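Show me a record, fold above all:
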Amino acid sequence: MDRVLIARQSASPQGAAPSGPPYAPTAAALGGRPTIGLDVPITAVFLFLFLCGAASHMTIFQLNRRRGHKFLFSGAMFGFCMARSVTCIMRIVWAVRPANISIAIAASVLVAAGVVILFLINLLYAQRILRAAHPHSGWHPLLSLAFMALYAVLIATLIILISFTVLSFYTLDPSKRQTAHDLQLYGGTLFAVIAFLPIPIVVAGIIVPRKSRVEKFGSGRFRTKLYILVTAASLLSLGAWFRIGTSYLTPRPVDNPAWYQSKACFYVFDFGVEVLVIWLYILVRVDRRFHIPDGSKGPGDYSGLVSRTSANGETEQPGGEGKMVTRIMSEEEVFDDVPEEEVEQADSKAAKVHDVEK
């Protein structure tokens, strides 16, 4: 079927405009056009994995919600898994109907756009680690504003990228197509940078000298959180940098793709790395490890050592009503080497807060 479509394009009289809009692409893309014999079985396997991931994240989200344990990232992961399930379905439909350019557009846009959800989640995890390692600077208004600006730029870039990707299928104007291509390179580069960004943020949180102790949050060891986030960011960075790196290379004809545009590369560097991250977050229970107390607004809130006054004048703890404030000893002696006197002072402070709650 692919060869039939290519033959139709080649058979057009010289100088005659191709049928459309939308117009079929003339340059090879990562993964190429899906086929029934090869792509449908592979995509069906990924569809199953994404659907299982969606069911697992939603189950975790609902169980936590019933216990009053709010962790919205599980809901976001469910949304990502469902978006990827739709992407797989569109690729299967595209394989069955290869001449339908509208389906090809939808499948291409969904492949490029869905992973942004994982980039945002990892950035928010990195922000929590930074605030735990450096409570005062991590909660600084300027740094918080910088993160918000980064999120806004990411979302705006995604909207622009989708718009011009669709536009490139509906125009034959070389200048407009070049503009769309340049914006696609910009968007892909930004996504690759953001995919990698959690790693230097985590490294900075470790090597920059601290003025206060690490604020433990969630369950598990602090260093394990670092390993989990760095692993996930590395996987997503591998896929993002591979995709944008190949995009900067000279375009190849649609009927003569390069080795780096093969179907194997597509499934490994797109769906493959994403499935690994999805199931990594399920198996290590990020809903427990990266959970923070509701209403955290500043230094001390993660550890639960700071009391805040509510709107009705009552004193409340960030950890929620009825939750005991304790200082959990972990490997902070490695990541936060403090004198024994300060450790004893922290123990004493935590005990006094607990006595007040009683």
Notes: DSSP finds 14 helices and two strands in the chain. The first strand starts at residue 308 and ends at 309. The beta strands are 308-309, 315-316. Residues 10 and 18 are 10 Å apart (CA to CA).
